[in-house]
Amino acid sequence: MEIVLSRIREVIILGSGPAGYTAALYTARANLQPLLFTGLQPGGQLTITTDVENYPGFPNGIQGPELMDVMRAQVTRFGAELLDQEVDKVDFSRRPFTVWAEGQSYQAKSVIVATGASALLLGLPSEQKFMGSGVSACATCDGFFYKGKRVAVVGGGDTAMEEATFLTRFCPEVVVVHRRDSLRASKIMQERAFANPAIRFVWNSEVVEVMGEENRKVTGVKLRDTVTGAESDLAVDGLFVAIGHKPNTEFLAGQLPLDAKGYVRIQPGTSRTPIEGVFAAGDVHDAVYRQAVTAAGSGCMAAMDCERWLEAQAHEPAKHEARAVSGAERVPQAGHPGAGAPTRTAGTH
Ligand SMILES: Cc1cc2nc3c(=O)[nH]c(=O)nc-3n(C[C@H](O)[C@H](O)[C@H](O)COP(=O)(O)OP(=O)(O)OC[C@H]3O[C@@H](n4cnc5c(N)ncnc54)[C@H](O)[C@@H]3O)c2cc1C
């Protein structure tokens, strides 16, 4: 599909995880002809996992990459344009907004940011090898697969304590491996973890290797004592890495208000950011739920908020046409005299 560069688009979507694809689906079906940048990880975080059993509609589960392939097929069916490129710069200081990717600029009246968050990992080759089959970054997602098994959790913050406590619903023994001799977690989370008889702590230790069999079954982890340097083996069936997440927002710094951890700020209960016409969806603003279904749900919210905002703007021509770009091709706006068929509401079927 040829991308018309000079055109001012109704909406540009950044990111191709469940949030971005859902936003694309709804905006495409609202006749807004979205342009979506997939980023360097087309399909997002689910492409690095195997079984997804908690996404509604798949009674037998589905492989993460397959789920994202069908989402992509669904959005292209409705005419969304996809570019497998990463956006490295944006200008949200004036409308139409501008985004840059691979040295090229693109303009749109509205932008939906759905660039997700990356789980911080240990950076070991063996961790990559067993990711999705013995190594996980999400207890809510994968805890169920470890019923009756012994697992390790790496980390010392609230997330690690939450993950460890959750895993004791399934696992008779959860070993928390922490590189220091005390936790960073809040007092209440620490107390809960210390009081749980199924949780054991290994202090001053870091995981230096994930061990397993060629059929991709984890059998244990190699630990190094951070004080003495001595190495030892810990037999476990799974490893949960819980050392935090980093929202993919570096390229937005100075353009969009972010919180102290780099997450996009939104108006509670909406997808609206403090910049009018810029919306956010999925893990890029959500440090709490971080699930495919919540990301998809917020992608739908962003599309509907965006569609309604564009519709309102179309009735305020002076404000909307704040800045014209020379040579740019104009897209007829819904509601304007002379526009084509009226835009359908994103929520209609
Ligand atoms: C190993 C693992 C297993 C998981 N298992 C499950 C599970 O079983 N069930 C479940 O519900 N959830 C699971 N999750 C969580 C789930 O994957 C996320 O909550 C969900 O993917 C978030 O969706 P998102 O669309 O917000 O962002 P992401 O999926 O993170 O997608 C972000 C997208 O933004 C793109 N991007 C980033 N920067 C830019 C940029 N500058 N320009 C353009 N694009 C950009 C990326 O390429 C990517 O396509 C798992 C997560 C992990 C890491």
Largest sheet: 7 strands, mixed
For the record, the CATH architecture of the largest domain stands as 3-Layer(bba) Sandwich
Number of domains: 2
Number of helical elements: 8
Shape: elongated
- Name of the top-level CATH class of the largest domain: Alpha Beta
Written as H for each helix and E for each strand, in order along the chain, the element string is EHEEEHEEEEEHEHEHEHEEEEEEEHH
Report strand %: 25-35%
Helix content: 10-25%
- CATH superfamily label of the largest domain: FAD/NAD(P)-binding domain
Number of E-state strands: 19
Distance between the termini: 26 Å
- Give the structural class: alpha/beta
What does this structure look like?
- The protein is α/β, with parallel strands linked by helices.
- It folds into 2 domains: 8-118 and 245-320, FAD/NAD(P)-binding domain, CATH 3.50.50.60; 121-241, FAD/NAD(P)-binding domain (3-Layer(bba) Sandwich).
- It contains 8 helices and 19 strands.
- The strands form 5 sheets. Strands 1, 2, 5, 6, 7, 8 and 19 form a 7-stranded mixed β-sheet that branches.
- Helix 1 (18-29) links the parallel strand 1 and strand 2.
- Helix 1 runs parallel beside helix 2 and helix 5 (158-167) packs parallel to helix 6.
- The longest helix has 23 residues, at 292-314.
- The chain is elongated.
- The structure holds flavin-adenine dinucleotide (FAD).
- Flavin-adenine dinucleotide binds next to helix 1 and helix 7.
